[in-house]
Predict the 3D structure of the following.
Amino acid sequence: MLRLSKLTDYAVVVLVRLARCDEVQTAPGIATATGIPEPTVSKVLKALASGGLVVSQRGARGGYRLMRSLNEVAVSAVITAIDGPIALTACVEGSVGGCEAENLCPVRGRWDPVNEAIQSALSAITLADMQEAAMVRSFPLVLEPARLESSRLDPTRAVS
Amino acid sequence: MLRLSKLTDYAVVVLVRLARCDEVQTAPGIATATGIPEPTVSKVLKALASGGLVVSQRGARGGYRLMRSLNEVAVSAVITAIDGPIALTACVEGSVGGCEAENLCPVRGRWDPVNEAIQSALSAITLADMQEAAMVRSFPLVLEPARLESSRLDPTRAVS
DNA sequence: ACAAACAGGACCGGAGGGGTCCGCTTAGTC
DNA sequence: GACTAAGCGGACCCCTCCGGTCCTGTTTGT
């Protein structure tokens, strides 16, 4: 299913929310504004901060602020910040020298072109593009009358 | 991490193995040839058969045969056969009307362009491409002396 | 000094996937 | 026609990972 972690989804919401003004916004404030639980918002923001997508202001009256504007942030950057490096992992990931038949295994390196293709695809899409896509979905009555309803109820609204 | 299921990885190995000859090959035979446990090979082949990537011959002297040649099979087809539709799922997948703030939620539809980009990227790569990439990795001494070793030991050999 | 807010880690519960097994059906072979 | 090799479909378990929460610092404005 090529599942993307839900945290990454939250990250996009938080980043878009952060783009609404230039001043710092607190994690509790974003939580109430977006409906995402506060601890989760905090967790997401920490990851985004360490990923260089937002800057944090500690102490009282602190909060977070966008580092770059939305059209300068690629989706790949968000995914990398939340989920780590983008990779369709082959074999057992994280196990150092775990596969005993490494030399015989015909899989080694096989997914590299796929990884590169996905990487370039995700680098070409910015958060501004995603925001625009969401905007389109906000006016389904005009553009695509049947789409909102079907997509809301159909969990298989996948691309393929 | 954009994790891809290990079963899909196995599927590629199995398909490449199947491409070695036109005659039917049994699941136990492929299991011994690839080192993948026999029940798992069987499971993968079942999924590939229902996905139309291989055809099965039942009964004694039965087995599996490729439906199309490797350069006619896109990676997206394999992923779809094993893992289901390709989608970076937003919100809670499978829950019908689970999100109570659907109209307010700014996420709805946001990932659509990303899904489409990934879909097109995966459709452009065939198993023949992956096989070729694996072949390059088979001669690291000539092409890239340091690559085999580093990639073998480094679980973070991701694209980004 | 106090309080508000971030930082960093520990922790837990549930869902999903890897992997296995079993009974059934099909179809060559002797 | 019986036997057997092989696929078919499903049930099942265990383990890992992720979502989500919490707690204890540390920083900094008031």
Summary: Residues 6-18 of chain B form the longest helix (13 residues). Chain B touches chain A through 71 residues (CB under 8 Å).
